[in-house]
């Protein structure tokens, strides 16, 4: 992505009062009824209403068959409402001691048994606050001792558990079903839960890897805390760690992890469900998996009446995906991450020349997304939804029959994007058919932080606003009700308190009702109408707190209501951030210390326990196009954390909220920009392509990064420019073909030197070995496959003739030890004899002996005792297979005295 200019000094540090939405997200009390939201833009006839408020970072919503509503909060609490009219939730369970609540980690998955409450089970999926083998609470939501959540050392695991309900509370103990999902980094954690029509429990989770870097397990100190194979510090091409955990099912020689997968489980035990495609495996995790190759499948839904899993996989720097697991029991679906993103190869991982990706590129099988959208493009042409920062965050199917929405929505897939604040509908191409990837429409632009979509009672779409509310979208085929809006000034103070009310922000979408609304004010919520004008004033005596209510009516008497709390005898506190001062900037791993205080007109200086801090990370596409992650919460008058390792552009925002004893809260914030540095990349000769982070680019180019940040670089090899093939030689900093650069404090240049492929040199025989052959002639002392590399033309590999199938082709495999670019194979027949000399042949090059793809060279050898040369288009791979198709005597025996491998020179 292009490097934006540095923000101006004015923009570097902003102190501002925050909106009610953010105050609500910090758990300050919010009082009100079902207040319609005014900002979202919906199709004609649709209207959004806020159903529940005052939630602390809600993540998931579930409707029980008996009418109750369960809401998960990221920190680990599950709340339950009796019905949609309930404004006071009960706490069903508090798992906060076990839940690791930092950055994107937390309680993210929630579902109920389909027969709830007859089967009184509530299922949860969350980040467990301990490394593998340890017991929570281990980190206590604070990773400062190991460099923060994004330093690669604050390792946690994922946990799937079943809770038992007794009324509105959990009874008994948490029953742990699965504890796995090693998560080295702060994002791509556990995901979602849902039941299929088959009665099985489906589970999703991310890869647990870095969201900044090409991560194949080489990051962190100590290295490899998730104990990924082959062990120790990871290097290409054999590394299997980091994001490659999403491909772990393809390495059966080691135990299977669950990162980057979808599971299908028995809801009574957590074991693999009957009928799973790999049910015969001896590995219990392998048996559980029905899909793999996912980066961050944060949300998914099951198509009604089926067990089809439709999931949103959050992309890296360019592509968001909507993926479909069409038949979970027919075979494991591989969506290709990290080797693929969207429909094409992921440049960062492709450039690292990793075996697991190279094998996938040569035909191990990858399923393309059902639909994918580019971060730089609109989902629907001409829509108001922005481009840029993107993260697909919700999925829900509309009922095929019986819903309240217009008939064109029957069977539609709704999906949302948290960063773009938008909701779309993907409509079926035909009644009863699948959603059409091209049949998309914008359903809601400027939606409020959608992180979960659910279909609720009556066929209405609900969504979770991560800032603290649950919202419903209703359809009115005829007259739409109005939208009530209150402005009240002031809302607290010493009695007698005169408050000015303004309802002129209320509106109605029906043209006949514009300018014709009726107003009824009830200033003390006692059922008495106190005023009927659009604006009014009222003086409150001591006592309270009070609730003022505005009811607005249209010409057909459809109404809407909004309330606002009024406190007398209690005035608003003032929160003050003392440090850091204006102009403070930070580098990765710098200590960011902060202090603050709060005063209150009634209580004086508030105690430290009244101060709540939240550090927010703004992750940006450009500096004015960002989405937000919560890094950490703190309580007290002071605290500190380390500057996070993150790609640029990004910045931090430190929020302080002070709450007095009466529940009044005030927030202020400070923006903290990072120290940056320009890194310049070039090649010799210039104009070749390099990969920095996620993207590949022709040199020379410059990237702006945060000082102290880790940045992965790869020299693409081989590559052709101007018709000349080139292979990588060296980096100016001495690093390997793919390595990590720690950004210095001053501008620095890095150059990768390449050599033209002007011919071929024989690879020393000490650098390759025979990996195997299909047969050997046991009657000959000198008939072993390894003889083809001993330097002697008198010792040979001679295959055994199969009497049952004398025309059976034979093969021999060579192992280069690592991925190499090959352009020649030299064959020397057995000397002194023409019997059994190879005539027809095929040559294959691959990174996997289990998947060879198509031959890179085919042909015939003449009846000659001279060395023969097979010319191969420059091809990268670790293994070479020579497959013999004929011999001069017709027996199709293979007789080889010597083989040599040529590499570009």
TrEMBL record:
UniProt-listed Pfam families:
F5_F8_type_C, GSDH, PKD_4
Q: Does Transport count among this protein's keywords?
A: no
All residue ranges annotated as the PKD domain in the record: 482-567
Q: Which residues form the signal peptide?
A: 1-27
Taxonomically, which superkingdom? Bacteria
The family database entries (Gene3D superfamilies) matched by this protein are listed as: Galactose-binding domain-like, Immunoglobulins, TolB, C-terminal domain
**SUPFAM superfamilies tied to this protein:** Galactose-binding domain-like (SSF49785), PKD domain (SSF49299), Soluble quinoprotein glucose dehydrogenase (SSF50952)
Q: Which residues form the F5/8 type C domain?
A: 749-905
Indicate yes or no for the key word Flavoprotein: no
What are the record keywords, sorted?
Signal
Q: Which InterPro entries match?
A: 6-blade_b-propeller_TolB-like, FA58C, Galactose-bd-like_sf, Glc/Sorbosone_DH, Ig-like_fold, PKD/Chitinase_dom, PKD_dom, PKD_dom_sf
Task: Extract the PANTHER family matched here.
Answer: HEDGEHOG-INTERACTING PROTEIN, HIPL1 PROTEIN
Q: Can you say what this protein is called?
A: PQQ-dependent sugar dehydrogenase
Q: Which organism is it from?
A: Plantactinospora sonchi
Upper lineage is: Bacteria, Bacillati, Actinomycetota, Actinomycetes, Micromonosporales
